[in-house]
Recover the amino acids of this structure.
């Protein structure tokens, strides 16, 4: 089982869009069992994959979220009928993802993630790794994709600790492109602090119009920079307003009538699988 974090410290680079569409293509086109873990407290991946009413029903019926992975302390639940009652934390082995279709699963995000104390020294940053270790032996999944928050934080560290690889989505604009060098410094610090054998899967240009000068400049920078040279994916996630609009109704790139976007996400997915050694 391979674990890949999609990371960037800048918002608005289509990180979530790329992660969920790659996961979708892996499950539909390549028939791989994929688990998406939504580690962003804004839980955008969850909202793009699960209708609001279904999410509320999932919570109300005791369904698990990413909070159950990190929250290891008893909580108090207030009820107008029973008063206050303690709720014991869920054992990691008991945390169950949502099944979206025959091949794709989701461990949903939750706003409650904000309330957890992730202070240094508590060890909570290792709990995602421990959770993933509990499902490795089950052989339920071929790939785990982690959608991370767009900030350097304990959540990002937890994702990197749990991962074998990281993939960087980059919008072709000067600040985003040069900002990935700062991201690399953050990742290197996490790797050093936690002694991680973490590899860069590559860089994918997103929201891209290949005719624009900023796109060509971004390609030139990535292809000439010492670290990023050879790591740029051949295909880019194309600039499409329809893709963002359809995500609001849980539709993904493969559901659109846009052959160029479909081909782009298929090529990106195939290249990712090749880098992971899962396809020739």
């Amino acid at each position: 089982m391979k674990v890949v974090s999609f990371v960037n410290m800048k918002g608005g680079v289509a990180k979530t869009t790329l992660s969920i569409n790659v996961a979708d293509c892996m499950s539909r086109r390549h028939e791989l069992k994929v688990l998406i873990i939504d580690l962003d407290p804004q839980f955008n991946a969850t909202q793009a994959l699960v209708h609001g009413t279904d999410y509320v029903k999932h919570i109300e019926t005791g369904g698990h979220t990413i909070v159950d992975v990190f929250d290891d302390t008893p909580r108090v639940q207030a009820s107008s009928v029973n008063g206050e009652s303690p709720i014991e934390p869920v054992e990691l082995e008991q945390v169950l993802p949502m099944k979206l279709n025959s091949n794709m699963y989701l461990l949903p995000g939750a706003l409650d993630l904000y309330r957890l104390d992730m202070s240094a020294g508590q060890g909570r940053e290792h709990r995602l790794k421990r959770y993933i270790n509990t499902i490795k032996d089950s052989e339920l999944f071929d790939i785990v994709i982690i959608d991370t928050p767009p900030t350097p934080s304990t959540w990002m560290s937890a994702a990197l600790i749990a991962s074998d690889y990281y993939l960087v989505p980059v919008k072709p604009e000067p600040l985003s492109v040069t900002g990935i060098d700062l991201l690399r410094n953050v990742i290197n610090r996490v790797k050093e602090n936690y002694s991680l054998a973490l590899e860069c899967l590559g860089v994918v240009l997103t929201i891209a119009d290949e005719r624009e000068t900023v796109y060509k400049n971004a390609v030139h920078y990535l292809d000439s920079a010492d670290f990023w040279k050879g790591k740029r994916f051949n295909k880019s996630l194309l600039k499409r307003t329809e893709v963002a609009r359809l995500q609001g109704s849980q539709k993904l790139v493969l559901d659109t009538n846009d052959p160029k976007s479909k081909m782009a996400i298929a090529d990106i997915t195939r290249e990712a699988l090749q880098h992971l050694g899962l396809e020739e």
Remarks:
- The mean pLDDT is 88.
